Amino acid sequence: MIKIGRNDACPCGSGKKYKKCCLNKIQENVLLNVEDQQDFNELLPKLFEYSKQFDGELQAIYQRYSSTYEKLKTGDSKAFSKLLFHWLLFNKPLTEDDKSILEKFVEEHSDNYSETVSTTLNKWLELTPQILSVLKVEKGGVVLIDWLTESIHYPEHTELTSQLTEDDLLVGYLYPTPTGVALGSDAVLIPDSLRHHVVVEVDRLFEEFHEGVKDPYFFVEHFHAFLSILAHVSIVDLPSVGFEKIPEQAFAVIDELYNNIELEDYSYDLILLAMEKWYHFASEQAPRIQKVGTYAAAIEYWIANHQHQWTKQTFKQLSEKYGVSPSTISARFKELNSVFSDVTERVPHG
């Protein structure tokens, strides 16, 4: 974590010392008349109302990615669902002309507002979910740093920011306002107990699906997978397995699995669960792995045939995909299914 001293260079890049620049940064006050203030306060509710005409497209994808949240505690489930819904509104192209619902709303309604509110609304087009860490807590508010881009943010002081402490890690949106930016009420604080596990899995996500490049555009495009990581580490409590106990070929099986699936194929938390259960199986059973594709195909079959998964696979389809026989996949699947299904529902065979 970067620490900023009073005499250090200001992280905003001005070249000035921190104490002479953003330490005492005060957002320029923009006086809003009553009508503008009301219009701004109603932007999000009106966007929600506008989105109802896209319910068909929204609900199909929302149900696809939110089914995992049913296993969470009520408060966590609501928080994750809220973030997912906002991502679908702000960032997911869902309309016939491949635009987000927010983009369509701005196109159709921006001219209905004053210049101040319209300018703010257009800035919302740059809304993206962010992993944010609290860099510093000052008397007048907090300094946040984006975990991926290392950009510095000074959100307006609110009841939410007043509850943050240095080094807190959270995920959410920074909403442009007429006076600056505000940390949204949809922000989710990642508990310290889960922080290391979350960071490890996010690093794995980039490594396996984006060549290790921590690209914010990839993060936004696949934000549902990041939420699945949060859900997974909040739910699953499998005992840890030391890497030294896992046969080398077992890692090759997971590499083969990752090489043959896409992030859009399945709920990512189920992929993580399958990986962890495979490592436990491999460390305890020490299976003889002659061809990694046989077990990789069996694991994918186990994933694909779970409830709420939208990509279904047969043994024949997987045999063509992995270059192994359907009967071999079936045999390996039966071997795995008897062990894998101690936490989740047993996957039917056939």
Automatic annotation (TrEMBL):
Superkingdom as given in the UniProt entry? Bacteria
Please name the InterPro entries in this protein's record.
Answer: SEC_C_motif
Tell me which Pfam families the record gives. Answer: SEC-C
Name of the protein described by the UniProt record: SEC-C domain-containing protein
Q: Which organism is it from?
A: Evansella tamaricis
**Organism lineage string:** Bacteria, Bacillati, Bacillota, Bacilli, Bacillales
